[in-house]
Amino acid sequence: TKYVVFDKTGTLTKGVFDVTGIYPGRDFTEDELLEYAAYAESYSSHPISKSLREACGELDARRATDAQEIAGHGVRTMVDGHVVLAGNARMMDDSKITYTKNTGTGTVVYVARDGQFLGSVLIADEVKEHSKQAIAALKAQGVNPCLAVILVGENPASQVYVRGKVKDCGECGIKSLELRMPETTTQEELLAKIAELAADKTVNGILVQLPLPKQINEHAVIDAIPPEKDVDGFSPVNVGRMQTGQPCFLPCTPAGCIRMIESTGTKIDGKNAVVIGRSNIVGKPAALLLLAKNATVTVCHSHTANLKEICANADILVAAVGRAGFVTGDMVKPGAVVIDVGINRGADGKLHGDVNFEEASAVAGYITPVPGGVGPMTRAMLMKNTTQAAAMQNGVAI
Ligand code: NDP
Description:
Blueprint: E1 2-7, E2 12-18, H1 30-43, H2 47-56, H3 61-70, E3 74-79, E4 82-87, H4 91-102, H5 120-140, E5 146-152, H6 156-172, E6 175-181, H7 187-199, E7 205-208, H8 218-224, H9 236-243, H10 252-263, E8 272-276, H11 283-292, E9 296-300, H12 307-311, E10 316-319, E11 337-340, E12 344-345, E13 351-352, H13 357-361, E14 366-367, H14 374-393
Parallel strand pairs: 5-6, 5-7, 8-9, 8-10, 10-11, 11-14
Antiparallel strand pairs: 1-2, 1-4, 3-4, 12-13
Helix pairs in contact: 1-2, 1-3, 5-14, 6-14, 10-11, 10-14
The structure holds NADPH dihydro-nicotinamide-adenine-dinucleotide phosphate.
């Protein structure tokens, strides 16, 4: 199977690239791919599409219409650092294959309909790249950013999240301290550890992985993290500052959602935005950030009446429910931007989002995948906050 391949900037690096096995069971002719390219261009001003257009030259209207059909569901993914594009009416199956193959190496880019795409991992990469550069500049000035991550107990999901954060730190040049405390840790012991890190000038960010064992009061713990080291953005001072529109550390997941929505070129201003979920860490702050961007925001929760109808009217739909496949295709407005925050471990052992991807992606304009969407973006935002914390605490501008 051969595909036209472009690098991240949209430059044609190889006319045709053999990716046999990446999309098994589907063969594209070169013409099909080029037609798809023309179609993508007509939909998007993304530099990748521009290059595709240049590469394939002008196509007549009829061929462009054919391309539209071929590319009814476009596929773009990363292979060895290249963006691979292909038109495929059976995208859903293929995209799943792609994720399974590539998620581990963080190469999945996007998912979308109609040749438009939301490059979640690519965006996360950009944010991380920016942090990397800022960190290099900080180091040149003698500042060595450091993030302390505290994990209490053995929660398997938390262990995975902490590993991911530590790995990201390594990639960005941030020193990380992974502090593991036993399940039986008392609140006093945890508060003492936080006080120690708060006083340590070499530690710029403190993150306590939630949830905590039941003998520990989460609020007391979050309150104990000094606002200037609260890179999760959960402390009351940062929450209050966010609510009143003052500079602060924004919570990573909701801030990442906004970033992803904006990356599509969608103007949030004046749009109907619906957030399903009202937790302090996702739903409420996501709603506040959308409001700050002048969306008309509706927050749904377990007591909401007519939830389906409300969602079906959303130009922007953020799902943070914690229930696999909660958002079905009939709850999505055609062309809507759908951000799936949910991470739910299914009986099959796999991760599932809150959105029924197969149904919703047939209707949505943009949709984020799980895994590979909000998750990596959240981690990238944590790197950004930690970098900012280090700069601020050392009085260095970045
Ligand atoms: P919570 O359990 O704290 O909140 C869930 C929200 O969904 C609540 O507000 C609840 O309403 C609402 N809800 C539950 N059932 C329904 C229903 N049947 N109808 C309408 N609303 C409902 O979860 P979180 O906000 O912490 O997390 C949500 C999801 O996002 C989880 O899957 C979590 O794993 C994931 N997550 C992903 C992150 C990432 O980086 N990608 C980061 C953080 C979370 P009510 O308030 O009335 O109970």
